[in-house]
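Subject: Sanity check before I submit

Could someone independently write out the structure tokens for this chain? I want to compare against mine line by line before I put it in a report. The sequence has 307 residues.
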Amino acid sequence: MEQSTSAPPPSSDLLRLRPLSLSEIPAHPLLGDASVSASSKDDTKDPDLKHPDLVAFVQAVLDQGHTFISKPQFDETFTAVSTKSSPPSIAHVDVLKREIPSKGEAWFARRSVHENKKEEGSADWTEMVFALRDDHSLHERDFTPTLWDARKICDWDSELSSESGKINGFDTLTAGVFEMCHEIPAPLGPRCFPVLVVTGNVTSRDDCFVAVTVPVDLAGIKTSFYSSGRNVEEGSTKLEKKKAVIGSYAAAEKVTLDDENIEWVMATASDAKGNLPMFAQKLAMPGAVAKDVGFLMKWLADRRKAG
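---
Independent answer below. Compare away.
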């Protein structure tokens, strides 16, 4: 697919904690036309004028996320914090950290290596693909105890499929906008994180995929649920009806099969906003990122037992 001559190029800084505006992501009917409110000029009637091209945007997100956690850059920029256990996972979890002063961001990462076996405390390759690539955000909700909603706002999956699902270096592509909502212990209220999630296989090998999450600003978008506040009146449960604090979350994730072992690497930066100070969030992050490994292994084990 050729990029429209009127479409601006994607930002060179998509993997960041500051949310992307609607004009920085591809246009979608369910998100409205950001270009209309961006300018009063007649040329804003061109829906491609103020939005990056879909394929170019997805290419940029995957390239930036993949580079961020590629082995050479990851090893050079992240420093070890600790090694933790994460039951019932057999594998231990290395926790690492990276400060980016120019952005005021603190990134935390984890790396774990799992035997490629469908057994208690581990998982085989097909299970990891199912859990972490296919329906990435929905499955994250399923295996994370505090994550109670993964509300899909829209996706571009059919458009990407019509382009043969291939971008330079990646295939089997998905891209969608979600509101990911977490419950936080009282007296703090629930947090919701509006994100755009892109997944794809690395085409240079048959056994590697990446998932990249970038924050987006959905304030004022009627089709959003929590960002617009519609949930207060339209929520179907007590939790859904609570007014949510809107936070910011970014992540890059890579899963690779090597010599019968599966390496799972994830790096994330987040800001839960509200009355939760950043220093407290930073103290909690090493333990929080490690726990996710055990959550996934338990969920997969429960699925096996259920048949």
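---
OP: Matches mine. For the report I'm noting this point. The longest strand covers residues 170-182.
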